[in-house]
Amino acid sequence: MGRTALVTGASSGIGEAVAKRLARDGYTVYAAARRIERMGALKARLVALDLTRDAEIEAVIQTIRRETGRLDVLVNNAGYASYGALEDVPMDEARRQFEVNLFGAARLCQLALPMMRAQHSGRIVNVSSIGGKFGEPFGAWYHASKFALEGLSDCLRMEVRPFGIEVIVIEPGAIRTEWGGIAYENLLKMSGETAYGPYAQRHAKMFARGAGTNLPSPPEAVANAIARAVAARRPRTRYAVGGGARTILLLNRLLSDRMQERLMWRFSQAER
Length: 272
Description:
This protein has 272 residues and is of the alpha/beta class. Helix content is 51%, strand content 14%. It has nine helices and seven strands. The protein has a seven-stranded parallel sheet, sandwiched between helices. α3 (91-119) links the parallel β4 (73-76) and β5 (122-127). α1 (13-24) packs across α7, α2 runs parallel beside α3 and α3 (91-119) runs parallel beside α4. The longest helix has 29 residues, at 91-119. The radius of gyration is 19 Å and the shape is globular. The N and C termini lie far apart (56 Å).
């Protein structure tokens, strides 16, 4: 029987690369995104999905159940970066950040699990971030959503193990996608002209500097890691992948909280 995968956020970046890689590996891929018009080049079954709309989430899973009767891999990749000083970000935007980055992924897990339990197999891949392990100025809601996704994944992994289902966390570092540009724009929009303006503007420049270096890895690096993880007989619980990921997570384990904060602030505010 053919294998089926659902990949969210497949219109660009990591999601697009994952959809292509899993299709090459022989999966029937359902590629989901809000911007369905951008996915025409994918060799996949295209589905419209806004993770803030429960009816669309339910419709995607119903379509897969009707057309294939099984789901072997769920890649919760969709997400975005909402940046701005905590004081400046409206609570409606904070809630939307969690709806997309956390609650939408959780709802897909809820709906996918009955099929996976019936199969007694399945892989749930939650794309978190190295930012799920540490904070940075102006990223409170983004980092909080990724911290929460990490905790959700660890709890879910224990719950579904008796049913032959694995839960895998992917922690990308710097990846060459639209992420940095969106974070840059959101940060300036929220805090560029407030009391935090001078600091927020310098932090935004940090995003721009990073995009212009050789540090970011191509999104295919993450796609390859996910392909290895879902094919492994016993996958690791976490895969740190991409520019600087392993080094930054090592420093996160070795340095005290105060030392990490001082280094992060200096890097954030550097005038270069």
